[in-house]
Amino acid sequence: MKKALLLPLAALLAAPAFAQPVDLTKSQLAFTLKQMGVPMSGSFKKFAANVDFNPAQPETGKADITIDTGSIALPTGEASAEARKKEWFNAAQFPQARFVSSSIKALGNNRYQVAGKLTLKGISRDVSAPFTATAQGKTLTVDGILPVSRLAFKIGEGSWSDTGTVADNVDLKFRLVLVNS
Amino acid sequence: MKQANRYHPLQVVLHGLMAVLMIATFAFGKYVHSLPLSPAKFQLMSYHKWAGMTVLALVLVRILVRLAKGAPALPGTMSPAARLVAHAGHLLLYVLMVAIPLSGWLMSSAYGIPVVMFGLWQLPDLIAANPELAPQLGQLHGLLNTALLLAVLGHVAAALKHHFIDKDGLLSRMSLRG
């Protein structure tokens, strides 16, 4: 009885969902950066994604992704802790980053381009990323890479702004597994 | 024919070069390890890895030269026990010279931070990224280095004993002239 009441309530609370539930256990938000020419990867363990995407009508699609900046994970605990500090993501003051799409275009051959606004550390910038969409059974897997200039968002201030050590470009790799109902 | 009474010049040069490089890499590694995370630490840690991989390359060359050219005879005055200790000590030094850079390389792979030689050539990962194993390999790297420090101190003490106490001219084996 209680469960029957709670379920629709939970659905209501998660309200802004557009259409498709996103399987967060299979979805990933990872990134790679280069320090001293050495590729290093990390990821955000916690994020929420509201996505509506139909490959047959890509232009009607939309995405709204909220990232918990404190959930950043890097190869060492020391680096993960550093990334939450003021000079980097300043997770205490800016606990969330957000991407809101403005348009999705088909590029042909199962390739698409999404444009939108990325807000990171209180700074908003227009960004654009190519992605592919692969249907498999009831799921649709969206895979793409968003190249970001970390300095445009003041990620890595002070001595960390030296791009000779940590390169300016960071590739954000997103994989969203959408479940078609 | 009598066995050569000194090492091949290439062995002498490699011995000196590696001694300098290993002492520098050891001290540098200790220093970098003590630093808090900073751009400088990233930079210096890369240099440390380059130096360590250079040691590994040099020791492999050195082992090949040793196998090809052998080693001069030990002084006839040395007891069988002293000979055994000398051989065991040298073997231990060779093992550590290979094992220490390898453990560093393994640690880098386990941390998911590959070694990129001189910022140009990425070396293959020896093992897949493994966050649990990585700190353990770090401890192993440290332990092996402590063992190397003790082995090198023993090596130097033995050389000084031969030179000043036994006065058997052993050190001339490792010199280019005289």
**Radius of gyration of chain B from the CA trace?**
19 Å
Of all protein chain pairs, which has the greatest interface, and how many residues does each chain bring to it? A-B, 17 and 19 residues
CATH architectural category of chain A:
Beta Barrel
Quaternary form? heterodimer
Q: Which blocks of ≥5 consecutive residues of chain A have pLDDT under 50?
A: 7-15
Count the DSSP helices of chain A.
Answer: 2
Short description, anyone?
Chain A has 181 residues and is mainly beta. Helix content of chain A is 11%, strand content 49%. Chain A has helices at 2-13, 77-84; strands at 28-35, 38-44, 47-52, 62-68, 72-73, 96-108, 111-120, 123-136, 139-149, 169-179.
Keywords:
heterodimer; A: 181 residues; mainly beta; Lipocalin; 2 helices; 11% helix; elongated; B: 178 residues; mainly alpha; Fumarate Reductase Cytochrome B subunit; 4 helices
Fold topology:
The complex is a heterodimer of chains A (181) and B (178).
Chain A: H1 2-13, E1 28-35, E2 38-44, E3 47-52, E4 62-68, E5 72-73, H2 77-84, E6 96-108, E7 111-120, E8 123-136, E9 139-149, E10 169-179
Antiparallel strand pairs in A: 1-2, 1-10, 2-5, 3-4, 4-6, 6-7, 7-8, 8-9, 9-10
Chain B: H1 9-34, H2 39-69, H3 80-111, E1 116-117, E2 121-122, H4 133-166
Antiparallel strand pairs in B: 1-2
Helix pairs in contact in B: 1-2, 2-3, 3-4
Can you walk through the features of this model?
With about 180 residues, chain A is mainly β. Chain A has helices at about 1-15, 75-85, and strands at about 30-35, 40-45, 45-50, 60-70, 70-75, 95-110, 110-120, 125-135, 140-150, 170-180. Chain A has one domain (about 20-180): Lipid/polyisoprenoid-binding, YceI-like (Lipocalin, Beta Barrel). Chain A contains two helices and ten strands; from the N terminus they run αβββββαβββββ. Chain A is elongated and about 50 Å long. Chain A starts with a helix and ends with a strand. Chain B is built from four helices and two strands, in the order H-H-H-E-E-H. Chain B has helices at about 10-35, 40-70, 80-110, 135-165, and strands at about 115, 120. In chain B, a hairpin with a 3-residue loop joins strand 1 (about 115) and strand 2.
